[in-house]
């Protein structure tokens, strides 16, 4: 039986560099995986990590693309990290992402073809409200009926997906789209368009918004009372309640913040890179952001780098697919390894492993 | 630092040699919306087409693919990177790649794009699709002749023209040989979800259907049909393995001849943007071998129908046909025009139920 005992002294240095160690382990094991698949592992790792950033062929195009791919991941992960710090588990960011996009699409298309510069800000607001609304459902159910927020928020993803499918063949269907599912392209309609602001930089409003959010959350967690409250709530819920913190209040707030950010990420994705509501509009940002949040140590600056790294593995993963013929599933395994190694190394840093013959719970402890 | 530079120079040198030795005349990329999978399905059939291209042209053509590409921004990125890395031709094999294809094609006028099932074209974007509804006439005929309960179960994916057209086509063919025929349609709102498709098949069988048709990608319904002892028709690939007794025949997507032809045209410089909508005649939509469970006589009828549609003497939509609401659509002897078929959003008269909105 393996026994885990918390370490008295956790190495600060080790805690900080765990993500880097995890990346190195992932490269090694991923390399072995690619090798087993009959591909040159060095070539594969180079295509994934180096070529998008530095190669002559790809870098000019791929660098801004990494930013575009990372921005929704960062936005969603920032919101999730607030909840995760407080031990509140919102797993349904994917659904909130969809709902934010749906509500903002409804707002934007309701005005079509009116030209007005207030439509876009209104849609941002709509995205936040849509996401927050979807996130508040599990929060209320948890604080009222003590339901499990992990299950409820996850299940709501599937409901949101149905709503998305129904909207793309129903109320939001493009009247000029020859009966095919999917809405008008919002990126082609100036009032709702979220274009690249500086040619060739990849920066759109969503990217700027995520930069602002990083700064805001950094401040919130470091200097504001709320940052302390959620930390307290996560580490010592009983102490928090003695200190007069209302559980419902924290749960509601954490869920609505993460929902609003996921929703607004959906809005920026819809109006920019994706362009239109389609049946398969959501591509898993909400779930990948969970990895990003942990990879970034639930820290805003860490999340920024983790988001970029994750985006890099997507962009580089595609390159390795068509350059080297690595199957998509192998790339997903590779991305999964990242979280696996991070969590397992974390465990070893925080706990001492010892082997005992005892049954796993010893009463005397 | 010098050392690194030296090394990279050497490696560049070797890369240069290798690529110059293996340089193909034409680099062709494919993007698929789902993983290719083991042996059935939409994307698998497209990949068979890719392999046929490799086989046909050997060293002259190099192919590559990216699978599981989400429609939208990701597709645009993948195709751009393919174009950047020197691909001369790109096949985008899903409807949702349409806008991304148009965007990337405008940035790379020298790269030839082929988009499946879409309707937007430009100088370097061609479109192609198959008249699967012609195949559905044949399975409709077989089902209408063979059913004992006069009830056909139909698993439909999304209410889009392609799917509605298939239901109408199968219904008309079944109705022509069996006036009592009833179609029960279940909309599953997915292209691929084995659990949902299996549930839909069970529900339809519970409601008396003894023939199952599907417009979804998994083999789940075929498996259920085999278990429950009813008959079924496969989709996209031959699904005989999953229903050795149940499968009467399958509608096969066969892209290989088209891909080989188009790549050939790109090689000899005669490629130009066109719209292709081929059916049974060239075999883009094909019918797999008829099962021995189909009585000899019906097998012959089905083969005759196949040949007649392929030769153009019979059209799947030949009037008189009314729409579901009783309004006239095609007068006697009139055949449907492609425009109406491409945008079909109504049931023909006799089908019960509503198309979900």
Describe the protein in words.
- The complex is a heterodimer of chains A (365) and B (357).
- Chain A is mainly α.
- Chain A has a single domain, classed as ABC transporter involved in vitamin B12 uptake, BtuC, CATH 1.10.3470.
- In chain A, 70% of the residues lie in helices and 3% in strands.
- A two-stranded antiparallel sheet of chain A has the order 1-2.
- In chain A, helix 4 runs parallel beside helix 6.
- Chain B folds into 2 domains: 112 residues, Rossmann fold; 181 residues, 3-Layer(aba) Sandwich (Rossmann fold).
- Chain B is of the alpha/beta class and 357 residues long.
- Chain B is built from 11 helices and 14 strands.
- The radius of gyration of chain B is 23 Å and the shape is globular.
- In chain B, the strands form 3 sheets. Chain B has a 6-stranded parallel sheet with strand order 2-1-3-4-5-11, with helices on both faces. A 6-stranded mixed sheet of chain B has the order 7-6-8-9-10-12, sandwiched between helices.
- Chain B starts with a helix and ends in a 15-residue tail after the last helix.
- About 3% of the residues of chain B have low confidence.
- The chains are: A mainly alpha (365), B alpha/beta (357).
Domain count of chain A: 1
Rounded to the nearest angstrom, the distance between the terminal CA atoms of chain B is 65 Å
Task: Work out the helicity level of chain B.
Answer: 40-55%
Rg of chain A, alpha carbons: 22 Å
CATH topology of the largest domain in chain B: Rossmann fold
Tally of separate domains of chain B:
2
Sheet with the most strands, sense and barrel status of chain A: 2 strands, antiparallel
Please provide the count of β strands of chain B: 14
Q: Briefly note the structural class of the backbone of chain A.
A: mainly alpha
CATH superfamily of the largest domain in chain B: Response regulator
Q: For the largest beta sheet of chain B, what order do the strands appear in spatially?
A: 2-1-3-4-5-11
Q: Which secondary-structure class do the elements of chain B indicate?
A: alpha/beta
